[in-house]
């Protein structure tokens, strides 16, 4: 009986040491050097970190809200003519692609579909706003366009997309209200309409290129 007790005691002690070592390594991997040092210096905390690793969320999911908002912003910035936006996008797109490598295939497909619909909603809202300006019938809520609203179902359940879309809509609505107050006397010429369509096509092409880069095979 004593031999069994000693065996169980030895097994328990070994298990605790292994969990402690695992806790140090896991703390460094997921939480950085400071947490790893803390786990090393305070063994009970190291053991706790080792046990806690069982219920820790995967790293891709831990940053889900932040990364999905960054994804939405990357789509918006890719259509911009601003040099600073383009430079920022290069760095962001690289980070997003690295994150996508960690995302499971089914979630990756969901994000890809959401991104494509987010792009369509952005272009649709911009087209509705610009068209109303050209025709001198300013719509103070251009993003309420039925074609745009159709696309929302694909991304509104994703927190980062929802946050970014709300911010975009507020900006467009504010611009539309300002334009409605200022107004203008007559419809714009066809040359303006052609330039608008060219701009929208260019914006759409840039957004497509950004999404192709971010979602390219790992």
Name the descriptors.
79% helix; 2 domains; 218 residues; mainly alpha; single chain; elongated
Plain-language structure description:
The structure is a single chain. The mean pLDDT is 78. The longest helix is centred in the first third of the chain and has 30 residues, at 2-31. The chain folds into 2 domains: 2-56, no CATH class; 61-214, no CATH class. It has 10 helices and no strands. The protein has 218 residues and is mainly α.
Report the oligomer.
single chain
Helical region count?
10
Helical content stands at over 70%
Q: Which outline best applies?
A: elongated
Integer-rounded radius of gyration: 26 Å
Number of strands: 0
Number of domains: 2
- Structural class computed from helices and strand pairing: mainly alpha
What characterizes the major β-sheet? Answer: none
What is the chain-wise order of helices and strands? HHHHHHHHHH
Strand % is under 5%
The end-to-end distance, rounded to whole angstroms, is 56 Å
Runs with pLDDT <50, length 5+? none
What is the overall pLDDT average?
A: 78
Summarize the model shown.
The protein has 218 residues and is mainly alpha-helical. Helix content is 79%, strand content 0%. The protein is elongated and about 95 Å long.
